[in-house]
Every structure is written in structure tokens, then in C-alpha cells.
Specification:
alpha/beta; Protein-Tyrosine Phosphatase, Chain A; five-stranded mixed beta sheet; 10 helices
Length: 220
């Protein structure tokens, strides 16, 4: 496995390499016209990876804090975002632990959502494409913080409108809600309580594999 690059903005050569990585390897050329942006609750925005220019636009909309779900590496996107936030007077926060293609422990998801809720707004949170990780956290935020119906939150925050596709590997994130709605909601168990006491990432992954294959409990 190739080592992920780190970048350095202190030299002209380093900045050129970082910009090339940001625009080409990190696909910012696509994001120049495609923002994947929406306000999901008062003062709470979701999007894909913003550029420094777009952060300026979001500040003009009132955003004061930017939250990244992309980890803490010294890669181009983090360096440019951190510098832009300093220049614009925006708070920059990293919340890590969620992944795009496999379910993670409940404690990690709850820590991110509760951490996001505790951050003063208006705020913008994002991953790379604003499709999978961002969609999961958006759905969880609406359910756990805004008291939105589980089925509605999952339907509106994870779907093709965001370039999230349920039958890809990232569709396991949808399956967290599908399993809850099938197994726990009919009995009246609350979603947070289910996450804390019943939810098992390995079981959800195995059940998702069955669902995609039409096997197990999902067999015709």
C-alpha cells in the first residue's frame, strides 16, 4: 500500500505540489461547480470539501465554524482549509471516527454528533464529497438532535441527490437505519437507546451483505 502524501506550504514548490494534489488527486476540479451544499437545520450546513474561496462565501452567509470529518493528516485539503479558516477568522474543528464504507462503533458516531451539536453555530460540516460520511452524520444529527423521524432523516440525507448510492459498499451506512426500522422501531425502542444497547457494526455489515445479495433474512 502506498504511503499517503503529506504537504508543506512553506515553500513555492511545496505549495505547487499541494495545489496539484488538491485539484487533481483530491478532485477539487469537480467541486469547483459542484458544492453538494444544503442547510439541514437552522444554522447547520452540510457540503463537500470547501475551497478557501468557498469558505469566504460561507462566511458571508454567516458561518462561523467549519467542521471537517476528514481526519488530521498534513495533506493539501486540511492545510488549505486550516489556513483559510485562520485568515477568515473562522473556527476550524476536526471530528474523526466515521468511515464511508463500513459501520463504526456507536460510541464513535455519537461522539461526532454530540460534538457537532455542542459547537456554536452557524456551522458547516463536510467530508470529501459530502455524500457518504457527511450524509450519515447529517441523518444522525437530525434524528438525535433535531428529533426528526428516522426514516425521513435517512431518506433525505442519504441518497442519489447527494451522489450516495445505497447498493455500493457505502450503502452499509443506510443499512444502519434499515436494521433499526425493521428490528427496533416497531417495538418502540428509541434510536439512541438502540445504538447504545443493541447496534453491532459487524452484524449490520453481515446483514447488509445479505441484503445486497438477496440472501439470509432478505431472501425472496
Amino acid at each position: 500500500m502506498s504511503k499517503r502524501p503529506t504537504h508543506d506550504l512553506t515553500s513555492l514548490t511545496g505549495r505547487i505540489r499541494a495545489w496539484l494534489h488538491f485539484y487533481l488527486k483530491d478532485h477539487h476540479l469537480l467541486r469547483m461547480a459542484w458544492w453538494n451544499l444544503a442547510q439541514i437545520a437552522p444554522g447547520v450546513w452540510r457540503s463537500n470539501q470547501p475551497s478557501p474561496w468557498r469558505l469566504r462565501r460561507m462566511r458571508a452567509r454567516g458561518v462561523t465554524t467549519v467542521v471537517s470529518l476528514r481526519g488530521a493528516s498534513r495533506r493539501s485539503f486540511n492545510l488549505f482549509e486550516e489556513r483559510a479558516c485562520v485568515d477568515l477568522g473562522l473556527d476550524f474543528v476536526r471530528l474523526t471516527g466515521v468511515m464511508a464504507r463500513r459501520p463504526v462503533p456507536a460510541a464513535d458516531m455519537l461522539a461526532i454528533v454530540d460534538g457537532l451539536a455542542a459547537i456554536p453555530g452557524p456551522k458547516l460540516f463536510h467530508c470529501k464529497s459530502g455524500a457518504d460520511r457527511t450524509g450519515l452524520i447529517a441523518a444522525l444529527y437530525l434524528i438525535l438532535i433535531e428529533d426528526v423521524d428516522v426514516a425521513e432523516a435517512a431518506r433525505t440525507q442519504l441518497g442519489r441527490r447527494w451522489v450516495h448510492f445505497p447498493r455500493t459498499r457505502a450503502g452499509v451506512l443506510d443499512h444502519i437505519f434499515r436494521v433499526y426500522l425493521r428490528d427496533a422501531a416497531p417495538a418502540g425502542q428509541g434510536f439512541r437507546d438502540w445504538l447504545e444497547t443493541v447496534y453491532d457494526p459487524a452484524e449490520v455489515q453481515a446483514d447488509f451483505d445479505d441484503w445486497r445479495a438477496g440472501a439470509g433474512r432478505w431472501a425472496a
